[in-house]
Specification:
Blueprint (H helix, E strand, L loop, with lengths): L1 E8 L13 E2 L11 E5 L4 E6 L4 E4 L1 H4 L9 E3 L10 E7 L17 E5 L24 E6 L9 E10 L3 E4 L11 E6 L2 E18 L2 E6 L3 E5 L2 H15 L6 H9 L9
Antiparallel strand pairs: 1-13, 2-10, 3-4, 3-6, 4-5, 5-8, 6-7, 7-8, 9-10, 9-12, 10-11, 11-15, 12-13, 13-14, 13-15
Length: about 260
């Protein structure tokens, strides 16, 4: 007997269609591709994008997967070589984020503050925009580093499928490693960051209890809103003033449910 089970997962699969619609990016030094990099911690690998010369935005489940990471590395096309990386000085995770919360999770976003590096001084910032609710089926692009592509950057294009208060849904080909990938839209001739790729629905097709097929129906992304923009601005100002928050203090901010005076 054939049955279909459904659940939310952080893993992603190619949509059920004959052709993988992801395309390899060859012009890595061109903006905005130059701003998109690989995030590595001792526990997980994902994607992130520079929105200023020292701030990367990504998913919280990449930074805080099972515990506080001892280090965070950001590998970008702006690095002199593939072996070089930018070091994280600090990071911010929303106080209400929990790794076990169901997807889509409006708190599944994070910021990384990078140490100063000459390679970042001339980078072009990426502007964010709060997306208009009426623009369903608006063209978007998702760019990241799929885990099945051995460290290469891939882009997939599609459109907004559903628009909610704090997240989007869309139907794009993605796999593990693309969490934190930017959702970009060209609006009035300019490219904007409108969201962060987070997760997908997972459908499991079984026959007599045996898994026969797995596929995704749609993806989810955190939507850039005024609250996220406000916290990014505050985080930038705090770090620029060298107010350092230690790893231990960040852990307290997460588990005690208190963002403190830093993020008012």
């Amino acid at each position: 007997m054939l049955s279909l089970e459904h659940e939310f997962r952080l893993e992603r699969l190619i949509l059920e269609k004959p052709v993988d619609m992801r395309y390899k990016v060859h012009y890595l030094k061109e903006w905005p591709y130059s701003n998109i990099g690989i995030i590595k911690t001792p526990y997980i690998v994902g994607t992130g994008i520079l929105i200023s010369s020292n701030i990367v935005i990504t998913c919280a489940h990449i930074i805080y997967h099972t515990t506080i990471p001892s280090k965070i590395q950001f590998f970008s096309p702006l690095n002199p070589s593939k072996l070089d990386f930018f070091k994280a000085k600090n990071y911010f995770i929303p106080r209400n984020f929990k790794i076990d919360d169901p997807q889509p999770n409006p708190n599944d976003w994070a910021l990384i503050y990078l140490e100063k590096d000459p390679s970042l001084e001339k980078m072009k910032p990426l502007k964010m925009k709060i997306f208009d609710d009426e623009r369903i089926k608006y063209p978007i692009s998702l760019i990241g580093y799929p885990g099945d592509k051995r460290g290469d950057m891939y882009e997939t294009c599609g459109e907004i499928y559903e628009c909610f208060k704090d997240h989007f849904s869309y139907k794009l080909d993605t796999t593990t490693g693309q969490s934190g990938s930017p959702l970009l839209a060209r609006i009035e001739g300019n490219i904007y960051l409108i969201g962060i790729h987070q997760s997908s629905d997972l459908f499991i097709e079984k026959k007599n209890g045996v898994v026969m097929n797995q596929f995704t129906n749609k993806n989810w992304g955190v939507r850039i809103n005024q609250e996220i923009q406000r916290k990014i601005k505050n985080f930038q100002q705090i770090e620029d003033k060298n107010i350092y928050v230690s790893i231990e203090n960040v852990e307290n901010l997460i588990h005690k449910g208190n963002e403190g005076n830093y993020f008012k």
